[in-house]
Structures are given as structure tokens and as C-alpha cells.
Amino acid sequence: MGQGPDIRFESELTMKSRPFGRLDLGIEMQKRLDGMVAIVTGGADGMGRATALLFAREGARVVVGDVDTAGGASLEAEAKAAGGEISFLRCDVSVEADVAGLVAHAETRFGKLDTIFNNAGIEQPVTPSDQVSEALFERVIDVNLKGTFFGCKHALPALLRNGGGTIVNNSSVSAFANVGGNLSYAASKGGIMSMTRVIAIEYATRNIRCNAINPGVIDTGMNRRNLDLAADPAQLEQKWRSITPMGRMGTGDEIGEAVLFLASKQSSFITGIGLLIDGGRVAT
Ligand SMILES: NC(=O)c1ccc[n+]([C@@H]2O[C@H](COP(=O)([O-])OP(=O)(O)OC[C@H]3O[C@@H](n4cnc5c(N)ncnc54)[C@H](O)[C@@H]3O)[C@@H](O)[C@H]2O)c1
């Protein structure tokens, strides 16, 4: 004890100091990502958007790639109004050239890359496994698994040029626990866990750490769409609460804090893990 900064204390202060690290007292606080350049895919909405805004508040210059150009424009404006820097580029993560362009944009615009959050993903509408079409399976795998592969593949050379950095991949509790009716989604998220471990081990001695997060039920557009499609939305919401020991959905901000930890030096001896952020669900 007594060595290094009190990270918990610093984090509490920084959170209270929103927006962008200035306390009401007028004291400039140390920002947790000062000087860093980050990419967030799927950052126009949901937990990606919350994470991109948190990264910008904490001093990072952030490149966001997403297919939602209106959401991207409003994100840029929201960050700018609060004194942060987010640069949006249209990017479909299932298209390799788009992802290569996203990484190139970060290096051209901000000079380097320190971290990438491979977050973009789509749900599989609840479907019995013997009725999942080839097209549905391929689309979910293309965006979730292949998109994460492209993000890792094209970020790695940039991180090596930078002398190191971090990758955070968005998996899911679906990689570990049956959620029901989501075969292609679970397969994609299990694949992301395996890919995360392969990269972590392969680049461990080159100052690149690669980790995943495994969110439980989070209150985002994805789950609002799942509710809209449910025969009985109230019953589905109640089910989500009952399978989560903490009795509620998580928030994008709670995901952002965990991603920030894995992206930053605060997690300097952690690589190859999947961090459950699930209100206790997988522990039951
Ligand atoms: N919501 C949950 O409960 C939950 C739980 C576990 C994991 N996840 C994962 O979290 C990630 C973010 O999901 P969310 O809940 O914030 O969903 P969301 O739908 O709110 O946000 C997803 C974002 O990804 C973008 N996107 C979709 N397809 C894309 C593509 N091909 N290229 C680029 N961007 C694309 C969307 O436009 C959107 O901005 C996903 O990978 C999802 O699988 C979500």
C-alpha cells in the first residue's frame, strides 16, 4: 500500500468533475487517458457511444467508426460542446477496407494509435436454432466476429508502430452462459473470446495487451429492439431482472468505466481475460 496513485480516489474525483475533468472548485484533475489516441467501433450509440464520450472526457482523442452517420455527427457535436475531441468516420466493420481506413484515419489525424475498443455488434433476433438461416448466421458472424478480427488485424501494426498499446474486444455473457435463441450471436461472442486469447499470447512480449469484456444485460438500443420484438416485453424485462442478481440492467457508463480500465495503464499486468460486467449473473 502507499505506492503509486490512489486510483480509486482519483477515479471518484474525475467522475464527479464531469464534464472533462474540471472540478467546480476550478482545479484541473489528472485525466486518466491524457495524451492517448483511441478508436471505438460502433460508437454512435449504446455502450460504444458512452465509452467514446468517457474516453474524450478523460483526455483521449477518439476516432469513432459506425454505420450510423447521423449518430456519429451528433456524437462529434456532443463531444465538442463539452471540450473533448471525437472524429467520426463512416465504417462498416464487416468491410475490411473500411476498418483499415479507420485505423489509417487515427494515425493521420492524431499521429498514432494507443487503444482500440472493438465494440460494433448486432443481435440475432430470438430464433430456434434449427430455424436460423444461413444468411442470418453469416450476417451476425460477419459483423460481430469478422468485424472484431478486422479491428484487431489492422490495429496491431499501428500499435506496434506506437511501441505498444491495448485492444479491448466486446464479447458477452453469451460466450459463457446460455441466453436462449441466439445461436449465431453466442457463436460470434465465443469466437471473440478465443481470438482475444490468441492475440494476447502472441503479442504479450511486444507491449500489446488484448482483453475482452463480457457484458450482461445492458440498457441500450440493442435490448430495446429485443423488447420490441418480444411477444410479452414486460415479461422479458422481468426475466432479465430475475436472472441478474443485482436486479437491474447495466448502463453504458458502467461498461465505459470497465473498458477504460482495460484500455489504460491501470490494468498493466492484465492480458487475455474476459471481464464479466453482468451484475453477478454468471456467478449464479
Ligand atoms: N446490450 C447488451 O445487453 C449487450 C450485452 C453483451 C454484449 N453486447 C455487445 O455490446 C456491443 C454494443 O452493443 P450495444 O448494446 O451498445 O448496441 P447498440 O445497438 O446500442 O449499439 C451498437 C452500435 O454498433 C453500430 N453498428 C452496427 N453494425 C455495425 C457495423 N456493421 N459497422 C459499424 N458499426 C455498426 C450501430 O450503428 C450502433 O451504433 C455489441 O457488440 C453487443 O453485441 C451488448
From TrEMBL:
Coiled coil: none annotated. PROSITE patterns: ADH_SHORT. GO terms for molecular function: oxidoreductase activity. Pfam families: adh_short_C2. It comes from the Bacteria. Keywords: Oxidoreductase. InterPro entries: NAD(P)-bd_dom_sf, Sc_DH/Rdtase_CS, SDR_fam. Belongs to the short-chain dehydrogenases/reductases (SDR) family. This is NAD(P)-dependent dehydrogenase, short-chain alcohol dehydrogenase family. It comes from Devosia enhydra.
